[in-house]
Amino acid sequence: MGGGVLGVSTAAQLAKRGAQVTLVTEGRLASGASGRSLSWLNSYGPRSAEYHRLRLLGLDRYRTLSSQIDASAWLKFDGGLTWPGEGELGKYRDAFEHMRQVGYDAEWLSRDEVAARTPGVDVTAIPDDGAIFNPGEGWVELPPLVDHLAQVVVAHGGEIRTDAGPSEIVVSDGRVTGVRTADGAVLPADAAVLATGPAVPGTVAELGVKIPDATPISLLVRTPQIATPLRAVLNTPRVAVRPTPTGSLVLDSGWSEEEVVTREDGTYEVRDSTVQGLLREASAVLEGNPVLTAESYGVGPKPIPGDGEPVLGALGEIAGYSVAFTHSGATLGLIAGELLADEIVTGRPSPLLEAFRPTRFDQYRRSSHD
Ligand SMILES: Cc1cc2nc3c(=O)[nH]c(=O)nc-3n(C[C@H](O)[C@H](O)[C@H](O)COP(=O)(O)OP(=O)(O)OC[C@H]3O[C@@H](n4cnc5c(N)ncnc54)[C@H](O)[C@@H]3O)c2cc1C
Fold first, then answer.
1. Do the domains spanning 5-37+142-214+306-369 and 80-135+217-301 agree at the CATH topology level?
2. Which residue lies with its CA nearest to atom 2 of ligand 1?
3. How far is the CA of 308 from the centre of ligand 1 (A)?
4. 3-state DSSP call for residue 197?
5. Is 303 in the pocket of ligand 1 (CB under 6 A)?
6. Ligand 1 pocket check: which of 10, 24, 37 to mutate, most ligand atoms within 8 Å of Cβ?
7. Cα 37 to middle of ligand 1, angstroms
8. Does residue 278 carry a pLDDT above 70?
9. What is the pLDDT averaged over residues 232-239?
10. Which of 38, 141, 249, 260 has most ligand 1 atoms within 8 Å of its beta carbon, as the pocket-test mutant?
11. DSSP annotation of 288
12. What is the structure's pLDDT at 362?
């Protein structure tokens, strides 16, 4: 359930393994976070060994995909360039050392080296100490990936039901029995995967299952097509920038998402000053400082579990019920679907998901009932 990258990826892998699969989603495919994502493919910086390994496998699956189909328009490995803001040099040096220690490809480049290695950047925006370049990173545009995965579902005999309205997983006698779509119809099922992005914690809470939630509201601004040689994903103190298949750029940042106002009716107000500020910040890091305008923006929740780590796998107490709820769902999209599908079809727990199971939060549930 859920037509974002995690749901469609899992459905594709289930179908490939011979399961009879129906993907049910509320509206269109990729209408949630997957339709407004920066989608930087990376395992940048320090993190748990298990999470780093999973992210590396995520990158690996994208590389395999790029050798199997022509994804060259929407999947690129042109690197990521990151530099610190004021007072952040020590943190970035530590992150760099860590990446070197674990063998994650990272180079500390001077301004001149940046100019020579990765085009389209205004190197005067880079601090005197230089920037970190991760040549193995990349980006993906998720909607075409989701379309590709949906074709895989159908090619393997699965079905895609879009515009099903808010649907629910039906549980009876402690096990999944089906999925009910908004029109009341129930599709019988032995197993269901809740991959509804930011809606996951709220849905499982109704079953008495606690998944801590740190989902913020995010904003992704898209420019019209512009002439820029930029190829890398830029992660700079005031803005992140990535190229897109159409030659436009997408931009986001922490400060701009904090300026989004959630109205009482649940809709969002995005101030023009926020959009203009983000465009100015992006212009300042691009070679030639082009005047940028906004063609559109996407605003809404960005799924992030409370402890920052992915939540993937079966709920202990309800047979046949799995969840997929994660930050960095672009990086993990392919590998998460693969591992979840393996577990569901074989019934064998994957050691790679051990650290990420929803059951790790059981202690919170017990203590909240105490
Ligand atoms: C601004 C932004 C920047 C990001 N940057 C990065 C990045 O740089 N690198 C990275 O790896 N990741 C990044 N991410 C995260 C990544 O995009 C997400 O983790 C991923 O897209 C989540 O996919 P999903 O399938 O879990 O959820 P979604 O894409 O939100 O899909 C969930 C789907 O479920 C449907 N749904 C919800 N409720 C129901 C219901 N009751 N019944 C039926 N359907 C329902 C929704 O309509 C939606 O289509 C970013 C995300 C955002 C928003």
1. no
2. 37
3. 15
4. helix
5. yes
6. 37
7. 8
8. yes
9. 98
10. 38
11. T
12. 82
pLDDT tens string 348-364: 999 999 999 999 998 65
Pick the CATH number of 5-37+142-214+306-369 from 3.90.650.10, 3.90.950.10, 3.50.50.60, 3.30.1360.170: 3.50.50.60
Task: For 261, list phi and psi in degrees, rounded to 5.
Answer: -105, 130
69-126 confidence digits (pLDDT tens): 999 999 999 999 999 999 999 999 999 999 999 999 999 999 999 999 999 999 999 9
Strand pairing partners for 252?
A: 240
Q: What is the distance in A from the centroid of ligand 1 to the CA of 243? A: 20
Mutation choice for ligand 1 from 302, 309, 340, CB with most ligand atoms inside 8 A:
302
| Gap between the Cα atoms of 3 and 163, Å rounded | 10
- Using CA atoms, how far apart are residues 60 and 315, in angstroms rounded to an integer? 27
List pLDDT tens digits, range 158-216.
999 999 999 999 999 999 999 999 999 999 999 999 999 999 999 999 999 999 999 99
pLDDT tens by residue, 322-347: 999 999 999 999 999 999 999 999 99
Three-class DSSP labels, 247-268? CCEEEECHHHHHCCEECCCCCE
Residue 194 in contact with ligand 1 by CB distance below 6 A: no
Q: Which atom of ligand 1 is nearest to the CA of 27?
A: 47
Contact 181, 189 (CB under 8 A): no
CATH class of domain segment(s) 80-135+217-301: alpha beta
Q: Confirm or reject: Cβ of 305 under 6 Å from ligand 1.
A: no
Ligand 1 pocket residue status of 218, Cβ below 6 Å: yes
Residue 43, ligand 1, Cβ within 6 A:
no
- Of 54, 57, 56, 77, the C-alpha closest to 67 is 77
pLDDT at position 370 is: 41
Decide if pLDDT at 365 tops 90.
no
The full set of domain ranges for the chain reads 5-37+142-214+306-369, 80-135+217-301
- Of the candidates 171, 139, 160, 156, the one whose C-alpha atom is nearest the C-alpha of residue 66 is 139
Quick check: CB of 326 below 6 Å from ligand 1? yes
Contact 232, 80 (CB under 8 A): yes
